[in-house]
Amino acid sequence: MPGIALALLVALIAAPETAAAQTTVSAGQQTGDARNRAGEGSRERKPAPAPEPEPWSFFTTLSNGFASNIHFDQEERRAYGGVIAGAVRYEGDDFSVAYELAGHSYTNTTRWNRFSQLIQASIERDLPGNWEFETVGQVGFKGTSEDRDVVDQDFEVSPRLEYQFTAERRLRLFTIHRFKRYNADPDSNAFKNYLGAEFRDVTGPRRHWEIGGRLETNDEPPDRGDYRRWTYWLERSLPLTERDALLMQIRYRLKRYTQRFVEAEDQDVLRVDHRWVPSMTWARALSRDLDLRLEYTYETTYSNDPDREYGAHLIWTSIGVRW
After folding, report:
1. Of 38, 166, 251, 306, which residue has the fewest beta carbons closer than 10 angstroms?
2. Residue 246 to residues 209, 212, 223, 276, 295: CA-CA distances in angstroms?
């Protein structure tokens, strides 16, 4: 296990749980002194109702960064890149829909240069007790603004069942059913199914922790591409100042192929990959609708197939605007 992954895991678990100071401001109620002509007593002046939130919102994000290993292999090709994305979202009481368009451009490679599109919709339903059910569906073309998996057509539906212990604590159970289609390489088309759970506890403004895990099955036309993958993650966010927050996350993935063999110590064994992905993100709210983010990620994979081992450093900055 790489040392940097262990160091971040220790930092996640050992982060102090200091409570944020809260200030409560009480305002005295005012009673009008004037009486109407009919001789009625003074009446308490009621506050004006809060304005309804706008159902439509628009987003723009500009990102640029450096990758020490843009292809995530043993070649270790360095590259700089940028992504500009725009999105529109409609959100009702129990229904939402969003559309995103993004342009991607990188130096020293053409694999990731593209325009991507994503359409996503969700429907929520309240159930008896503290249960809530949500169905999320999405269609993607050439990945998303945050995804390096360049899939020509990506169809996904995800039912989610959530239980609210309190307003701050919730448990989510979910499944994902996904079909990935590659125009130039039909043998890489895949049906994927996920089953997972995650628990989140919000302990204060910009302060939360989350733990989760999921099982993924991948089935491709050639059996050699079939695998089972387990993913586990731990996430922690802490406020630094009134405008700044730090998000730390670590992910571990164990991938076991069911039909792909490699030679190890003069024997044919099924290939097994281990991947660690620790990351840290600093976020600063420049204003109500403008934020700045700086993210560092280290990704490493080790395997019983030595040709598949690699390490990669990624540093990204982004500015997001909500219109």
Report:
1. 38
2. 12, 19, 43, 20, 10
| Tokens 């199914």 -> residue | 193
Reduced to 3 states, what is the DSSP secondary structure of residue 146?
coil
Q: How far is CA 228 from the centre of its chain?
A: 22
Residue 8's φ and ψ, nearest 5 degrees, are: -70, -35
Question: Measured between alpha carbons, how far is 144 from 63 in angstroms, rounded to an integer?
Answer: 13
Residue type present at position 245: A
The answer to whether 88 and 119 have CB atoms below 8 angstroms apart is no
What the block records as the tokens of 299 is 């990704």
On whether the CB atoms of residues 278 and 253 are closer than 8 A, the answer is no
Q: Which amino acid is at 30?
A: Q
> Tokens 């991947």 label which residue?
275
What ranges in the chain are assigned the alpha helix state H?
3-14
Measuring CA to CA, which residue among 174, 229, 176, 177 is closest to residue 200? 174
- The count of residues in the chain is 323
C-alpha 321: how far from chain center = 18
- Give the pLDDT confidence of 211-248 residue by residue, as tens digits: 999 999 999 998 889 999 999 999 999 999 999 999 99
Residue 112 CA to residue 149 CA, distance in Å, equals: 9
Amino acid of residue 184:
A
The token duo for 166 is 């309190």
CA distance between the termini of the chain: 44
Write the pLDDT tens digit of every residue in 105-160.
999 999 999 999 999 999 999 999 999 999 999 999 998 877 677 899 999 999 99
Residue ranges of domains in the chain, CATH in brackets: 3-9+119-310 (2.40.160)
Phi, psi at 74, each rounded to 5°: -85, -5
Beta carbons of 291 and 244 less than 8 angstroms apart: no
